[in-house]
Design goal:
Number of strands of chain B: 12
Largest sheet of chain A: 7 strands, mixed
Helix content of chain B: 40-55%
Strand content of chain A: 15-25%
Helix content of chain A: 25-40%
Strand order of the largest sheet of chain A: 1-2-7-6-3-5-4
Number of helices of chain A: 5
Structural class of chain A: alpha/beta
Distance between the termini of chain A: 14 Å
Number of helices of chain B: 27
Distance between the termini of chain B: 55 Å
Number of domains of chain A: 1
Oligomer: heterodimer
CATH superfamily of chain A: Leucine Aminopeptidase, subunit E, domain 1
Number of strands of chain A: 7
Structural class of chain B: alpha/beta
Shape of chain A: globular
CATH architecture of chain A: 3-Layer(aba) Sandwich
Shape of chain B: globular
CATH topology of chain A: Leucine Aminopeptidase, subunit E, domain 1
Radius of gyration of chain A: 15 Å
Strand content of chain B: 5-15%
Largest sheet of chain B: 5 strands, parallel
Largest interface: A-B, 30 and 33 residues
Strand order of the largest sheet of chain B: 9-8-10-11-12
CATH class of chain A: Alpha Beta
Chain lengths: 175, 605
């Protein structure tokens, strides 16, 4: 685990399956139609039950850069914050990633969530370069935590060493 | 580089093409003289002779147009003269998708027959990669890619489900052999062999895992299966996404290193073997410091070393061998499976052409996951169907899971009188356990003598093999199973089979009756046919999955229709717990239903 302190707040980096994490809330990168789909979406449905998709269906959509929230069904997490991050090299990827990260943090604050787990948003199927993601997301989270955020702990969850290494490099480089 | 394109996505594709332009790729882009030699080799051309868009050169020309217009000076200066007319609008991308994914299985047969050495399959794979990077791909490719990226395997198997299935298979094998040494070890550090599989095995065909475990047991091998990094397939090969290919390979490489093994064995899978053994180290730009081999090599080695003994008369049906394109054409791996096959069956005959000239099963290149192209795929499969029919074989053996599905589809579609098997089936079936290495090792360590003896004969305790290892009496004892099947003969056959195994059976003849019976009776499991009058099986399955009262009842599809793969790959709802092709093998069906009942869980449990 890698840890970085921001005043009395903390950013951690761990490796594992974010949908299986015991945490107040975690972030899921969803599509605009608010469908969970495969990958982590499939894990949420299988482990957490259909309730998450039913709540998403009631909300209806999630525009790029925005965030919505649902319960987490029977998952170990308390809630899920769904964000629609940049996808497939779309224009303004860095700005949209920054906007998405802030949207998740603000929604967490609004819901009284003090502990939030992030995946490296968009770095798999959606082709956001890991180095870009690590720099933008960690910088954005650090800046947000330093500015009177009610979120006390942010956990970055890497699936594997491929994701872990660039996130660790940015966290350690900025320590 | 020119920027005269309207579409942002196409601009990105042009940018993303630049790092792909190695000397070999450029050689293939500029080397084509449109001589037509490749046309005669392609199963799509042979079955669509009047459609020029099926020719390999036409498919490769799509990438050539981009290259010539934006990177080659002739195309920049004289675009009209050299055919440099690439697509410029987003709407054009759908046609490119259809060509790259729907008219080519990247089998490389054209590559081998090109006098100029043009590697059309590589060009097509590059086009697929450019399209997927800008988000243009068949739905099945999107679903499978996301599973691969986020769950580490291409069928979305969760870690706990994978481990639980292995543990269940292990318990079954130990019970059948009455020997604790038959346990399937998970994450054993320092084992000689780490065995990796195709997710299809754990999800829909677990018998291949049991058979491999039986062979490792017979050979007294020190082996293990990893709890992570176990998927030796690699969808990056199909989608053209090198980064995904690298990520998938690293999972295997890193887990193998963590377990301290020197040998990674890859179960019978053509693209898995190619991706792991040949492409992975290049995609990931990492050193390879351990041995990687196909399980075909492992089984052959065991026989040659005398660690397992086989009796070929146990496999007496006429057998032919289908070469996986990735094994034969991309890895030069075609003699070893034949050598092994001749050791475990009595009546082997070649199909023609064979080895590097063999025809594709038509399920390669990820085709099984692209349901929108199934009708075209089955038309193109006529070439393979005729080739198999000419052999008169009752069994088509192949060392590839994709080929198993592709061949299974065409055998049913063209009503061929044969079935598909893998070498692991034949080797396991031919084992003479009493003479294998395991029988020469005492079950328990002998108690050391207080005074060492100068010479002592080894203690030999023969393994006791149950008379019928496969059939388990009352395997489904007391379980209530709803059989949904419109054909009376088949329904009676299934009911008798399951009742003999101890199940209480319920029956329905169409989709509506299936749903009504499921709601009223809440069975423990449903076997579901697909082609039925009225509401068909696909509709019924989706309705079952969307009904809160019955959606958690496990479903095993028993079908002869390839269209159902849409439900598995496009995944509009949670996929079925089991999938079996017709005609079913009795022991396989009982074993599969038992596995489903023992390991399935309700959504969210």
């Amino acid at each position: 685990m890698v840890v970085k302190k921001i005043g009395d707040k903390v950013i951690r980096l761990v490796m594992g399956d974010i949908t299986d994490l015991e945490v107040a809330a975690f972030v899921y990168d969803i599509t605009a139609d608010a469908k969970l789909g495969s990958g982590y979406g499939s894990a949420i449905t299988t482990r957490g039950g259909k309730v998450v998709q039913e709540e998403l269906d009631a909300i209806g959509s999630c525009p790029t850069g925005e965030a919505i929230t649902t319960t987490a069904g029977k998952l170990k997490a308390g809630r899920i914050i769904h964000v629609n991050g940049p996808k497939f090299h779309e224009p303004g990827t860095e700005d949209k990633l920054r906007q998405t990260t802030v949207a998740a943090l603000q929604l967490a604050e609004k819901n009284g969530i003090t502990q939030l787990a992030f995946p490296p948003v968009g770095t798999g199927l959606y082709q956001v370069p890991l180095a870009v993601c690590a720099r933008v997301m960690i910088d954005t989270v650090a800046e947000h935590l330093a500015n009177n955020s009610s979120v006390e702990e942010v956990i970055f969850v890497a699936l594997d060493t491929r994701e872990f290494e660039p996130l660790a490099a940015v966290l350690q480089g900025g320590a | 580089m020119s920027t005269e394109v309207e579409s942002y996505k196409i601009q990105k594709m042009v940018e993303l093409l630049a790092p792909k332009l190695t000397r070999q790729v450029v050689g293939s882009l500029v080397g084509c003289v449109h001589c037509g030699m490749c046309h005669e080799t392609c199963h799509y051309v042979m079955t669509h002779p009047d459609d020029p868009k099926m020719t390999p050169s036409y498919k490769a020309d799509q990438l050539r147009k981009l290259f010539k217009r934006h990177y080659d000076w002739t195309g920049r200066v004289f675009p009209g003269w050299v055919g440099a007319k690439p697509p410029t609008r987003d709407v054009d991308l759908d046609e490119l998708k259809d060509i790259a994914f729907g008219t080519c299985t990247n089998c490389r047969r054209c590559t081998f027959n090109c006098p100029m050495g043009v590697d059309t399959a590589t060009l097509n794979r590059i086009m697929r990669g450019l399209l997927t990077q800008v988000g243009v791909m068949p739905e099945g490719v999107r679903v499978v890619s996301k599973d691969t990226w986020e769950l580490g395997n291409q069928m979305g198997v969760l870690k706990e489900d994978y481990v639980e299935t292995l543990e269940w298979l292990s318990e079954e094998l130990v019970m059948e052999l009455d020997d604790e040494r038959a346990t399937i070890p998970i994450d054993k550090v320092g084992a000689n062999i780490v065995y990796t599989i195709n997710p299809r095995e754990v999800k829909y065909d677990p018998r291949t895992i049991s058979e491999a475990a039986l062979i490792f047991y017979a050979a007294a091998e020190d082996w293990t299966m990893p709890s992570w990094g176990w998927d030796q397939t690699n969808f990056g090969l199909f989608s053209g996404d090198d980064a995904m290919g690298a990520a998938s390979y690293r999972h295997l490489q890193e887990k193998n290193a963590e377990l301290g093994s020197q040998r990674l064995v890859i179960s019978e899978c053509g693209h898995g073997y190619r991706s792991t053994r040949c492409e992975g180290p290049n995609w990931s730009k990492t050193d390879q410091d351990f041995v990687m081999e196909s399980s075909v090599m492992t089984m052959l080695r065991y026989i040659k070393e005398g660690r397992i003994v086989v009796d070929k008369t146990k496999n007496s049906d006429p057998v032919t061998f289908h070469d996986s394109c990735n094994n034969a054409r991309s890895c030069g791996f075609y003699e070893e499976p034949r050598e092994l096959l001749k050791l475990v069956c009595t009546d082997f005959q070649e199909m023609y052409p064979n080895r590097t000239e063999n025809y594709c099963c038509t399920g390669g290149g990820g085709a099984m996951s692209m349901s929108e192209y199934t009708p075209r795929r089955l038309v193109s499969a006529k070439v393979k169907a005729d080739q198999i029919a000419e052999t008169g074989a009752k069994v088509v053996v192949t060392s590839c899971h994709n080929c198993v599905d592709g061949l299974g589809d065409l055998i049913r579609h063209y009503k061929l009188d044969c079935q598909v098997k893998q070498l692991v089936h034949l080797v396991a079936n031919a084992l003479v356990l009493e003479e294998c290495a395991i029988s020469k090792i005492p079950k328990e360590k002998p108690v050391p003598e207080p005074v060492p003896e100068p010479v002592q004969e080894p203690v030999v305790i023969p393994v006791e093999i149950p008379a019928d290892r496969v059939k388990i009496a009352d395997a489904l004892s007391g379980r209530r199973i709803l059989i949904v099947e419109d054909e009376e003969d088949t329904r009676i056959f299934l009911a008798t089979l399951l009742q003999d195994a101890g199940a209480v059976t319920l029956e329905a003849v169409d989709g509506d009756e299936a749903i009504a019976t499921a709601r009223a009776e809440k069975p423990d499991l449903i076997t579901l046919d697909l082609s039925m009058p009225g509401k068909d099986g696909v509709e019924a399955f989706i309705e079952i999955r969307n009904d809160p009262d019955i959606r958690d009842i496990p479903v095993c599809i028993v079908t002869g229709h390839p269209e159902f793969r849409k439900v598995i790959y496009d995944r509009p709802v949670r996929p079925p717990e089991g999938y079996m092709d017709k005609p079913v093998i009795e022991e396989d069906l009982v074993a599969n239903l038992r596995r489903i009942l023992e390991t399935s869980r309700a959504e969210g449990s």
